[in-house]
Design brief:
The protein is built from four helices and no strands.
Length: 134
C-alpha cells in the first residue's frame, strides 16, 4: 500500500501540468494589468470629457491642441527668433540654409559588384538604378 501511494504521488507530480498552469497564471496577471490600465485611461478620459462639455472649453481645446480656428478666421504662427529679432537658419525654413559646395563632398564608392559581361551589364545597371525595390 505505501508503495502504491508513493507511485501515485510520483505519477501525479510528473503528469500534472504545473508549468502550463504557471504560464497561464502569468498571462492572466498580465491581462489583468492591461485591463486595469485601460480602465484608468477610461476614467481619465471621462474626467476630461466632463471638463470639456461646454462649447467655450471645446473651442479653447481645439485652438490650443489642434490649431483649429472658427470659420472666417485665419491662423498665423510666429516662428521664434534669436535675440536680435532675426530668425535663425537652424530653426527656420531649411530652404534658407546655405548650399553645400560639391568640392566639399566626399566621393562615394559603389557598393554593388558589377559584372563585365555585355549581356548582364544592362541588367546590373537597371538593378542599381532601381535600388529602392530592396
Amino acid at each position: 500500500m505505501p508503495l502504491a501511494l508513493v507511485t501515485a504521488v510520483v505519477m501525479l507530480a510528473g503528469w500534472f501540468p504545473f508549468k502550463s498552469l504557471w504560464h497561464q497564471q502569468a498571462q492572466i496577471d498580465a491581462t489583468s494589468a492591461q485591463i486595469a490600465a485601460i480602465q484608468r485611461q477610461e476614467q481619465s478620459l471621462k474626467n476630461q470629457e466632463s471638463t470639456v462639455d461646454t462649447k467655450a472649453a471645446a473651442t479653447a481645446l481645439a485652438r490650443e491642441q489642434y490649431q483649429l480656428v472658427n470659420p472666417g478666421q485665419s491662423l498665423i504662427q510666429v516662428l521664434p527668433g534669436d535675440s536680435s529679432g532675426q530668425v535663425s537658419a537652424s530653426s527656420a525654413d531649411p530652404g534658407l540654409q546655405p548650399l553645400v559646395a560639391p568640392s566639399s563632398m566626399a566621393p562615394t564608392t559603389p557598393t554593388t559588384k558589377t559584372t563585365h559581361h555585355t549581356t548582364n551589364h544592362y541588367f546590373s545597371r537597371l538593378v542599381r538604378t532601381l535600388e529602392f525595390w530592396r
